[in-house]
Specification:
Number of strands: 3
Order of helices and strands: HEEEHHHHHH
Shape: globular
Helix content: 55-70%
Distance between the termini: 29 Å
Low-confidence stretches: none
Structural class: mainly alpha
Mean pLDDT: 86
């Protein structure tokens, strides 16, 4: 069970970090001085909730295994809306074929470098080694939610998945 006053914290943060997941306290930190729009906050909360989901589901070794961190960052960038076409256009980065994957890869590397003191080469290698498996892991949504309507459908599917699976 998630309790807003226990599992979410709004704080002032250094740099341009928007949020984070603290695995020791199972708490999501929102950087109130760096989030200016509701849509941005929604993406940050979704991104960090994916880390929380991975923490509970996969027992991620956040500090000793950079591949674990890379996988969670790939999943969070892929599923949170970080790499939507509109966000990429706002960053003046856009392309056609394979652009979503490129964005996910780049944002995962950037996130690793923001939270760990590793070289760019180490971060890139970790992301490349786990990319395919982690990019294709769409839990708990079952799909990449490209819009609000798609996210609502994914959530409804998630709520009903036990009912569907019991009929198999």
């Amino acid at each position: 069970t998630v309790f807003n006053d226990r599992h979410f914290s709004c704080e002032n943060c250094d740099g341009c970090v928007s949020g984070g997941f603290d695995s020791a306290t199972s708490q999501i930190v929102l950087c109130q001085n760096n989030i200016r729009q509701q849509s941005h906050m929604n993406r940050v909360v979704t991104h960090e909730l994916i880390h929380a989901f991975d923490h509970c589901r996969a027992h991620v070794d956040w500090f000793k295994n950079v591949k674990h961190l890379a996988c969670s960052e790939i999943r969070a960038a892929n599923l949170s809306g970080d790499c939507t076409l509109m966000n990429e256009i706002a960053r003046f980065k856009f392309g056609l074929k394979g652009h979503h994957q490129t964005c996910v890869r780049d944002r995962a590397i950037r996130s690793i470098l923001a939270v760990r003191k590793v070289s760019k080469e180490t971060a890139e290698k970790a992301v490349d080694e786990v990319f395919d498996a982690c990019f294709n892991d769409l839990e708990p949504f079952g799909r990449i939610p490209h819009s609000k309507a798609d996210a609502k459908r994914a959530y409804k599917d998630f709520q009903n998945r036990d009912r569907y699976n019991s009929n198999l």
